[in-house]
Amino acid sequence: METPPTATAIDPEDHPLESAEQLAEELAELVRMGDDADLSQYVEQLEPREAARAVCELSDEDEARLLERLIPQQASALLIDVPEVEAVEAVAALPPETSAAIIQHMPSNKQADLVSALADDEADAILAEMSPTDAIKLQQLVSYDPDTAGGLMQTEVLAFRESSTVAQILQRLRSDAGRFRQLDIQYAYVVARGRKLVGVLRLRDLLLADDSATAGELMIEDPIALDAQTPIAELDEFFDDHAFLGVPVVEAGGRLLGVVTRAAVDEQSQSNAERDYRLAMGVVQEEIRTMPTLKRSRLRLSWLSVNILLNVVAASVIAGFQNTLEQVIALAVFLPIISDMSGCSGNQAVAVSMRELSLGLIEPRELWRVWRKEFTVGILNGLALGILLGAVGWWYAGNPWLGVVVAVALGTNTLVAVLIGSSLPLILKARGVDPALASGPILTTVTDMCGFFLVLGLATVMLEYLV
Amino acid sequence: METPPTATAIDPEDHPLESAEQLAEELAELVRMGDDADLSQYVEQLEPREAARAVCELSDEDEARLLERLIPQQASALLIDVPEVEAVEAVAALPPETSAAIIQHMPSNKQADLVSALADDEADAILAEMSPTDAIKLQQLVSYDPDTAGGLMQTEVLAFRESSTVAQILQRLRSDAGRFRQLDIQYAYVVARGRKLVGVLRLRDLLLADDSATAGELMIEDPIALDAQTPIAELDEFFDDHAFLGVPVVEAGGRLLGVVTRAAVDEQSQSNAERDYRLAMGVVQEEIRTMPTLKRSRLRLSWLSVNILLNVVAASVIAGFQNTLEQVIALAVFLPIISDMSGCSGNQAVAVSMRELSLGLIEPRELWRVWRKEFTVGILNGLALGILLGAVGWWYAGNPWLGVVVAVALGTNTLVAVLIGSSLPLILKARGVDPALASGPILTTVTDMCGFFLVLGLATVMLEYLV
């Protein structure tokens, strides 16, 4: 964050997708024919995002060859900008020693993200290629939930003893300038024995201080620090309430573990929101249309095939009432409406629970609170929608009893849908299942079955009034 | 962003929802009974987010009374942290002169967000209470698309002439310290006649320079600047590629308009992603369960009532084939499946187009490109899903022809759904309609109608093989 704006003219260029395809072709040619220096130079002159996109266009083999031929620093810089799923695939495809060398050049939080996304045996193979100290540190990081301070922190911090002088600190900063440049460093920390955090140094104060002043004299004592378990909702709130660029992370005894930056929290919140949207729309893994067709088809089918089976299960309820349907064929018109509308009502409740969870406003155990709040809304909306559809049913069939059947069925099922929809994210989260992925399909299967059963069951009971 | 970490202990407190309700009660009591000083002091000691949540819990009357009784600075600080919809309602409810006074204490980008969200007559009434210069400036800001550099920039920048000395600049900084503190200022800009941007000053360099040095000597010449029309996708990419905290915004001739910060871009991207999710799930306006029940019911119904009408329209296709249905009642089992599955396939394509739009990978006019890419996936997935459901149909009805009918209908409709789903966001965006809001309902209505027509139409044509 500290790099100064450098001389370049106004820059309103656009990057149409075609250019990524072109770059990928040029890159693929260099990978296959050029020498290492040419390749390295070519990658160097690309903008990071441009380079990342071109890498995504490469075939898996070309991508592996590229990463092996670059020096580890360069390969690591490239992978940091690539979407995580793509980076994970790439790392898994390389020999473990190459992967280990590349990963060790990444910031600690990126290392942890990548390793925790790998299959266990792949991760173990890569960890085995690292020094035992590095491997243990990394395993420790991987153990944190990615949506907590521990999971979001970088462990690369500047930490000094109270007795360190400004001259010593500046010396250390200068010698490591290259490494710290890319690490968003704004503060240095002062630690006592056992790495216990005792103070914060602003880099600004260092610049203005006398060379012989000590860290202990310049530091701000008793700094704010957050526990490694602090969830992202609270981190978000923390950075809203405080104008800091980063906050130190400590474990129970006050030992300094790392620093969480505002940028890391913002990035994770944004990617969580994007992920919720993607999963709500049935896209299980990020898809860009330049990806190979077969892969895109396969990714989409992985979701659709589960859905079609659930749909068949739900529709089997209809099959059980074939006799009623034959006698009151008008009901067939209302089945898809009841199915779709209950899904809509339930999804709204899912979304509100997801939002309250991500804001830290509810805990997974507060089911009762949520139900109480949804019950009233479910009754009101069930009444409104039931009456509306009931009127349509009466008018369409010319029989008020058909109106009653669809009204009661939709009204009741609306209440069922909001109660189930609101509680699913809480229940799934408490059981460690991803609520964004599972809420939709489970919800619609249950509400479909329940809705079909209600309308056809009621119709069967009232059959004499309907025919 | 420049405020230093100050002395406070470790802070792992949690904010359960109950506390917001309690705070709101205490606040409401003070609003009704306490004097202005007590009220002001009470608000002052709350954390910003805590205060914002309590305000959301207040009744509309108490909220208005609170904002009127606080001094404008304090009211403005409070409203900045409240969700935008809530802030807009509050401002609209106040007398225009009070609203104007409060709004004028906000940073320029917040002013613009708020005013552009107001109804035209309310906005005009408030602008009429401002000085003509301020009103014109604000109107200018409101005219930018909120997803561009112009819409995201703050106009409060530090700008100096080349001849200004360090002593003069530092003097200005100190005198305005309070105002600049909350503005994320990291750089100052050097402008020539007509406010044309000619250089950037790092605040860090100022601190180390001689008092008599001039801005012209210290500045970095020809700084990177972005045009006011730069879309958010490019801003996102810019901050990924450059380690800056902010970038100056200029208009065509190079005149300095303001600065876009990394934080503003991140915040907007996050809120766009959250909004996409919310709308995809049918929540048209942010809902928190502590809001009044009637309001929550009304907000949800505003979406559901449109949906139920569209559903009735789509289902009317089924009514037209009552005769066929009566003879092949098994078809009733497959109607909801075809409706739901086509919706799923179409939604996936919507999500991929939304993502590519937000990444700046496609332009709204690139329909042909998108169709070409979707056609192959649509054929593949249509084949897979069609064959699967066809097999179920054959097995269920014991008649291969019923299998053929549902297979062809679902297969064809899958292709239709991905072609429509992928193009809707582009078409809507090109026409200035919100793609996130409109894609879902339009898509499912069209695919439902098309799917029902395909399966029932085919069945009618092949009736002799089915009965």
TrEMBL record, chains A, B:
Subcellular location, record wording: Cell membrane; Membrane
One Pfam family, short name: MgtE
Membrane topology: Multi-pass membrane protein
GO cellular component: plasma membrane
Residue span(s) of domain CBS: 153-218, 219-275
Protein keywords: CBS domain, Cell membrane, Magnesium, Membrane, Metal-binding, Transmembrane, Transmembrane helix, Transport
UniProt entry tagged with the keyword Secreted: no
Segments passing through the bilayer: 301-322, 375-396, 402-428, 440-463
Gene3D superfamilies, per database record: CBS-domain, MgtE N-terminal domain-like, SLC41 divalent cation transporters, integral membrane domain
InterPro entries on file: CBS_dom (IPR000644), CBS_dom_sf (IPR046342), Mg_transptr_MgtE_intracell_dom (IPR006668), MgtE_N_sf (IPR038076), MgtE_transporter (IPR006669), SLC41_membr_dom (IPR006667), SLC41_membr_dom_sf (IPR036739)
Keyword Cell inner membrane on entry: no
UniProt GO molecular function: magnesium ion transmembrane transporter activity; metal ion binding
Top-level taxon of the source organism: Bacteria
Oligomeric and partner information: Homodimer.
Xref: PANTHER family: MAGNESIUM TRANSPORTER MGTE (PTHR41394), SLC41A_MGTE INTEGRAL MEMBRANE DOMAIN-CONTAINING PROTEIN (PTHR41394:SF5)
Family that this chain belongs to: Belongs to the SLC41A transporter family.
Function: Acts as a magnesium transporter.
Name by which UniProt lists this protein: Magnesium transporter MgtE
